[in-house]
Amino acid sequence: MPELPEVxxxxxxxxxxxxxxxIVDVWFGTHREPFKTPAVRQAEGLHERKIVSVHRxxxxxxxxxxxxxxxxxxxxxxRTQDSAIVAQWVxxxxxxxxxxxxxxxxxxxxxxxARLRLASGRELRFVDPRRFGRLDFRxxxxxxxxxxxxxxxxxxxxxxxxxxxxGRKLAIKAALLNQTLLAGVGNIYADESLFRAGIRPRRKAGxxxxxxxxxxxxxxxxxxxxxxxxxxxxxxDYVDAEGVRGFFQLEHCVYQRTGEPCLRCGSTIKRIxxxxxxxxxxxxxxx
DNA sequence: CATTTCACCTGGTGGC
DNA sequence: TGCCACCAGGTGAAAT
Length: 287
Hints:
The chain is of the alpha+beta class. It has 6 helices and 10 strands. A hairpin with a 4-residue loop joins strand 6 and strand 7. The structure holds a DNA duplex.
């Protein structure tokens, strides 16, 4: 489901609704859980924490947590140092994951794997039919702070961008999808940015010129920023934290437009497979 | 090490 | 209506 613009949209929406709230009850499903940290340990760590903020790192959603969760020992939670971040809940949505803020009496969707009841009465729910998503709890006092791999496509400078691909023999499309190089780019925005930069997906990453790479960096940044403004791409079932669809799918130039005319030159959009992923491009506009 | 392939899942779609 | 093949926005382990 989600690439950088969708994850950014969701993180902003969740942040707006749960920032400052407190987790008062935690429920995890048990059926082959998509969890990095065992559900029991996550539930213990999340209980009675304050949600300080929610933001995006690459395709990950990081929930910053404060407060002492000593409710289990019967003591009242400490209120003084609430805003100091002591832990993180890291959510990766995989292909079909959703992070939803609901009212407590909203019907529980099939494939709901986690429910966090909040002091405000709302619930934060993780739903993921395909179970490619991951949930992870990190205790900062144990030095487990989350650091996403890869550079941020919205912030990377020209020289660093060039350096990422130097000497690499893999296809530029495959390189864009590699999260340890750039974090957050997936299949849609790889295809769309390569179209806008006029570069064929199968070109070897290390053979691109400095000028081409700068065109690509700017195309990627523009496409991602534009998509964020439109709330992401709703290709099948993607929705934001409120269940609202995005609109960038209406602006796709090549992605899932196989056989249709190129919006720029009119020639037919082709579909090939690169790095095991379907890849869409215009053979006339991309060289 | 760099790169490629494939398994992991459920669900939707379109052909017959 | 049903059955089946194929496709799907992501990763990371295993193979090359």
